[in-house]
């Protein structure tokens, strides 16, 4: 039996409801989005055009940049456009589409960051077997697994939400369509669905985070056998990844590792993984990585010449 659904659109209350603040946010978040697109595109172009950046680490980094561009595009343009209008609406289909792509791309990024930690573990702890273990075929299958995992995670979230009855009110106290705010609007008991959401999204974030932390603990112990130069180079590479992981996983676990409740801080915290993380990823990886910076310089010199 189909759920009774009297809602054809939702009203988003947005990040803020103060007109002056919205004007400032429009300029600020437009800048953030532009930096995200340009920065991540630059990383993709640099890696694809450079003969020196052919290791699996950069293969995964190029896909991370692509996911960041896609994820930011699924969220940011709608949010930025809403800063210019008083009544922020989104159709039911548009809301579910944003929900799907938000979790699809977000889940893919979580899995991809986990794979990148595994890559660093193999490179540092088993350097002699690195290219054998992380062959091109294996890397391709790992990336495919990340996309598949993100899809399965998202389709579960989306189907659970789509089949809920919405009969009003239709105001979402957020700037995007997400599971927790939508569950509050459903005119039925959502306790079981809420548990599944926490088990799905929250446990994926927590499990991946535990795997990441374990990987880096093992890496740190293994670095004791390396030379000082090798130790510093490995720590520099790992530090970039750890920084991204903290910025990404911290807010995700805050939002999803709890029962279906919404807090006043949720919107501010969500900004970190929907806007800030995709923007900072290229900056973090390039500012701390001499190989990427050198490749960018060579590419720039070739273009100028």
What is the succession of H and E elements?
Answer: EHHEHHHEHHHHH
CATH superfamily: Rhodopsin 7-helix transmembrane proteins
Number of extended strands: 3
Structural class: mainly alpha
Number of domains: 1
Helix content: over 70%
The termini sit apart by 67 Å
Largest sheet: 3 strands, mixed
The strand line-up of the biggest sheet is 2-1-3
Strand content: under 5%
**Any low-confidence stretches, pLDDT <50, length ≥5?**
none
Q: What is the tally of helical segments?
A: 10
Shape: globular
CATH class category name: Mainly Alpha
Transmembrane segments: 26-45, 57-80, 100-118, 138-156, 191-223, 235-257, 269-287
GO molecular function: G protein-coupled receptor activity; olfactory receptor activity
Keywords: Cell membrane, G-protein coupled receptor, Membrane, Olfaction, Receptor, Sensory transduction, Transducer, Transmembrane, Transmembrane helix
Domain G-protein coupled receptors family 1 profile: 39-285
Secondary structure blueprint with pairings:
Blueprint: E1 9-12, H1 19-49, H2 56-82, E2 89-91, H3 92-125, H4 130-133, H5 136-162, E3 171-172, H6 179-185, H7 191-222, H8 228-256, H9 266-287, H10 290-304
Parallel strand pairs: 1-3
Antiparallel strand pairs: 1-2
Helix pairs in contact: 1-2, 1-9, 1-10, 2-3, 2-9, 3-5, 3-7, 3-8, 5-7, 7-8, 8-9
């Amino acid at each position: 039996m189909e759920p009774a659904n009297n809602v054809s659109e939702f009203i988003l209350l947005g990040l803020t409801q103060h007109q002056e603040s919205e004007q400032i946010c429009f300029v600020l978040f437009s800048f953030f989005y532009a930096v995200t697109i340009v920065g991540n595109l630059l990383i993709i172009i640099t890696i694809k055009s450079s003969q020196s950046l052919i290791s699996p680490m950069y293969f995964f980094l190029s896909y991370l940049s692509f996911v960041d561009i896609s994820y930011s595009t699924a969220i940011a343009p709608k949010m930025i456009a809403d800063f210019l209008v008083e009544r922020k609406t989104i159709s039911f289909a548009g809301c579910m589409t944003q929900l799907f792509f938000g979790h699809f791309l977000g889940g893919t990024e979580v899995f991809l960051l986990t794979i990148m930690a595994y890559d660093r573990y193999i490179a540092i702890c088993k350097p002699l077997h690195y290219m054998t273990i992380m062959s091109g075929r294996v890397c391709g299958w790992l990336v495919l697994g990340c996309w598949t995992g993100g899809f399965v995670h998202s389709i579960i979230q989306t189907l659970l939400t789509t089949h809920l009855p919405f009969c009003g009110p239709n105001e979402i106290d957020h700037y995007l369509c997400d599971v927790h705010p939508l569950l509050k609007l459903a005119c039925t008991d959502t306790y079981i669905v809420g548990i599944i959401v926490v088990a799905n999204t929250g446990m994926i974030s927590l499990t991946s985070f535990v795997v990441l932390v374990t990987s880096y603990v093992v890496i740190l112990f293994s670095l004791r056998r390396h030379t000082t130069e090798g130790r510093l180079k490995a720590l520099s590479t790992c530090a970039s990844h750890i920084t991204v992981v903290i910025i990404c996983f911290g807010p995700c676990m805050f939002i999803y590792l709890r029962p279906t409740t919404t807090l006043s801080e949720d919107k501010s915290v969500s900004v970190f993984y929907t806007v800030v993380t995709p923007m900072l990823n290229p900056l973090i990886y390039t500012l701390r990585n001499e190989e990427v910076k050198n490749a960018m310089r060579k590419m720039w010199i070739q273009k100028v010449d």
